[in-house]
Model the fold of this input.
Amino acid sequence: MNKCILILTILMFFLSPATAEVTEDSLVNSVLKDADIKKPYVHKEYNYESTKTIPLRIAIKDRIKSEKDLYEGQTVEFIVQKSIFVNDRIKIRRGDILSARVSTVITSGMNGIPASVIFDSFEIKNAPDKIKPGQITDTLEIFGQDRTYFVFPLKWALTFLPPTGSLTNFIMGGHVRLNTKKILTLYYHPEWL
Done:
């Protein structure tokens, strides 16, 4: 009888949540110990008096789809489509590479709600002059096809037949598909510090 109690006590010790937390914490610490974690840029010194903005036209370098091979934290590259001049000096050249991070991927939802992808941490590589991260638009959000415009009227049209109106809940929104020909617009603020 005492051996059974001893075995059960040992099993309870190893299966207790406190032991699981210790092993999970040690696993997380061992993985993050060698990880290179970059602190995000915080733009604290805006010049709110200046409203001067210059449109920055970009296109994605490689085609992306939100339903495949896109994850949060991934770095994607955009190509600048038109040069930007400030005071007759070139600031950003056509063809420069603009890297960004995928900060959020939101999957498509029921009732036709579209998927969306949010890009942030824009950084220009090989710019003639140093462009500070706060001088370019902070985030860019791309949406998939919004199907709510026909789902909700259809839902209300079918409401008089009780089970049929709720069947429209299963119509999903569109995925984000971004090809290399789609031109996107960010804004460059030359007078911001």
